[in-house]
Automatic annotation (TrEMBL):
Signal peptide: none annotated. Its EC number is 1.2.1.3. The active site is at residue 264. Belongs to the aldehyde dehydrogenase family. This is aldehyde dehydrogenase (NAD(+)). It comes from Spirosoma profusum.
Length: 511
């Protein structure tokens, strides 16, 4: 494949954002490196040096020093620097989007869309930099004023997942930066090169604006590097995106030192299809939600809960839609579905398919692994649909693959019960033209998810809304709305501008 961005032939050593240093060392064969392979064709893209504990400590020390300066920069000025970053990502949208597609395996359209999310959050961050509002409260004491302020936390640790290798970093970093924090990013060990590319893209902006070295830092590695962030009392907040298992470990470790976490974890998202649904709207949303990113989104549609009177019609429409899916290279825009991230994910897909069969599930759309010309990486699988029961253990858990479960319901109460009867609580949707059903779904006794949609699917989200979910999804919120508050500490202030000192319970002192 022709180079998308200039790629080094030697392992790349991550560090601070003032520039990427290509690491040349005769002893490289003895060093621990990450080999980044593309799931699209199985080719080795690059070798990236894994951060040592010594590297990590130097990065955090540099970040701490940078925070002392960066927090004093006026917030609108920080927003202006984020705006310039957005312009850089506009300039390199095609190149970075192509790299995302090639390293992660999502379609080129989705890779470009992910870079657009970076651009959008930069735009959002510019406005946010002038809206870090506090409140003024009425004091019960005469000649006193009460207010609250928000101050930056310090060093923010960001742990991102392979399925959105750059967008989720930006949701955290751009908002954290306008709030006055500095960031240490640990990307997925499966997609290190896209992270290095992001650091390189923003490098000129940081240098041209005399931003202190250490405002944007990068470490690489697997679970050990994530543990360093979780255990380190110098890291004020750990924002972690990934599996529920990983999130529980991070939460327990950070809580042990009374640190802060922002968790965006697994999803097991359902769409309720009412007898009052417009199926011309519902079917495209279901298919895109189920097969987009080859089922490797936390918002992927995994369950369809269909009213029994239209169950047969929905089945037939889904069969017709799935027959039109084209599977192939993510860099070819004529294909709808690309590969899974690696062969371990394919094994998980196979094991899940076997479990469905053992439980008596019937496949409406048969599963399978693709091989032969164009599928040499061994990472391509067929999106499938299985008729199942909501209480099955296999349905209760999240499998990161394009497996869709088809379920029936009789009453709306039954549908909502099934929707909520899983451990996860990220995204949900209902398709109905009945306003009572829509409002019931959005009410207190409706969906228990962080995202609940009407006549739109579960997959994807807009920058302006806070993104995240409840239960085993972790409870965190990233991106828009008032998610900025997670990256700041609240301080209540009281000012006495009078000439007396009123004390609680009427206590007085004779002086």
């Amino acid at each position: 494949m022709q180079s998308i961005l200039p790629l080094p032939t030697q392992p790349v050593k991550p560090g601070t954002s003032t520039g990427l240093h290509f690491w040349h060392d005769e002893t490289r064969k003895n060093l621990n490196v990450l080999d980044s392979y593309s799931p699209a064709d199985g080719q080795l893209i690059a070798r990236v040096h894994v951060s040592t504990r010594s590297d990590y400590d130097k990065v955090v020390e540099t970040a701490q020093a940078a925070f002392a300066e960066w927090r004093l920069v006026p917030a609108p000025r920080r927003g202006e620097i984020v705006r310039q970053m957005g312009e850089q990502f506009r300039r390199y949208k095609r190149e970075l989007g192509t790299l995302v597609s090639y390293e992660m395996g999502k379609s080129l359209q989705e890779g470009l869309g992910e870079v657009q999310e970076i651009i959008d959050i930069c735009d959002f961050g510019v406005g946010q930099s002038r809206q870090l509002y506090g409140l003024t409260m009425q004091s019960e004491r005469p000649a006193h004023r009460m207010l609250e302020q928000w101050h930056p936390l310090g060093v923010i640790g960001i742990i991102s997942a392979f399925n959105f290798p750059v967008a989720v970093w930006s949701w955290n970093a751009m908002i954290a930066w306008v709030c006055g924090n500095v960031c240490v990013w640990k990307p997925s060990e499966k997609t290190p090169l896209t992270a290095l590319a992001c650091q390189q893209i923003i490098g000129d902006v940081l240098r041209n604006n005399d931003v202190p070295e250490g405002v944007s830092c990068l470490i690489t590695g697997g679970g050990e590097a994530g543990e360093w962030l979780a255990r380190d009392p110098r890291i004020a907040l750990v924002s972690a995106t990934g599996s529920t298992r990983m999130g529980k470990s991070v939460a327990e470790t950070v809580a042990g030192r009374l640190g802060k976490t922002l968790l965006e974890l697994g999803g097991n998202n359902a769409i309720i299809v009412s007898e009052h649904a417009d199926l011309d709207l519902a079917i495209p949303a279901i298919v895109f939600g189920a097969v987009g990113t080859a089922g490797q989104r936390c918002t992927t549609t995994r369950r369809i809960i269909v009213q029994e009177s239209i169950y047969g019609d929905v089945k037939n429409r889904l069969k017709k839609a799935y027959a039109q899916l084209r599977i192939g290279s993510p860099l070819d825009e004529t294909y709808h579905v690309g590969p899974l991230i690696d062969r371990a994910a394919v094994t998980s897909y196979q094991q899940t398919v076997q479990e469905i069969r053992e439980l008596g599930g019937q496949f409406l759309i048969e599963p399978g692994i693709l091989d032969g010309l164009g599928f040499e990486s061994g990472c391509y699988v067929r999106p499938c649909i299985a008729e199942a029961k909501n209480e099955w253990p296999v349905v209760q858990r999240e499998t990161f693959a394009p497996i869709l479960y088809l379920l029936k319901y009789s009453t709306l109460e039954d549908a909502i019960r099934q929707q909520n009867a899983v451990p996860q609580g990220l995204s949900s949707a209902i398709f109905t033209l009945n306003i009572r059903e829509a409002e019931r779904f959005l009410s207190t006794i409706g969906s228990d998810c962080g995202i609940a949609n009407v006549n739109i699917g579960t997959s994807g989200a807009e920058i302006g809304g806070a993104f995240g979910g409840e239960k085993e999804t972790g409870g965190g919120r990233e991106s828009g709305s008032d998610a900025w508050k997670a990256y700041m500490r609240r301080q209540t202030n009281t000012i006495n501008y009078g000439t007396t000192m009123p004390l609680d319970q009427g206590i007085t002192f004779e002086l």
